[in-house]
Design goal:
136 residues; alpha+beta; 2,3-Dihydroxybiphenyl 1,2-Dioxygenase, domain 1; 23% helix; globular
Length: 136
């Protein structure tokens, strides 16, 4: 089978104070933020720190009922998920579902940066929340 992954799109890190996290990446590594966005549908604010052709996605909740707020309350700051760039999000999601994976999104949906995304539940992916990202 040919891989459906193109590359790693981003590694997401949940933080309480996104401005402090951005400053830390800038001060320690000279990293720059390429994109910021308030993703209202997910209840998060994101900052994408550029790393070659990929990103570190810093996430902070904008409302208490968001998945990231719940994650922070349960686990504290740290690695939230890994996102793989795919050619076709629907095809990759269907492949996961057909193989028996539990999914969070039954069908792809709009993501930040004008992307199409879908999430695979960590219970069927060795404890890692996986995001599939199609760049449009």
């Amino acid at each position: 089978m040919e891989s459906l992954f193109i590359e790693i799109d981003h590694v997401a890190i949940a933080v309480h104070d996104i401005e402090a996290a951005i400053k830390w990446y800038e001060d320690v590594f000279g990293a720059t933020v390429e994109h910021r966005e308030d993703v209202k549908s997910d209840g998060v604010y994101e900052a994408l720190v550029n790393v070659a052709e990929s990103y570190i996605q810093l996430l902070t909740p904008t409302r208490e009922d968001s998945p990231v707020a719940k994650y922070l309350a349960k686990n504290g700051e740290g690695l939230h998920h890994i996102a793989y760039r795919v050619k076709d999000c629907a095809e990759a999601l269907n492949a996961a579902k057909e193989s028996g994976c539990r999914v969070i999104d039954e069908k792809p949906r709009p993501g930040s940066r004008n992307t199409t995304v879908a999430f695979i539940h960590p219970k069927t992916s060795f404890g890692t929340l996986i995001e599939l990202v199609e760049v449009n």
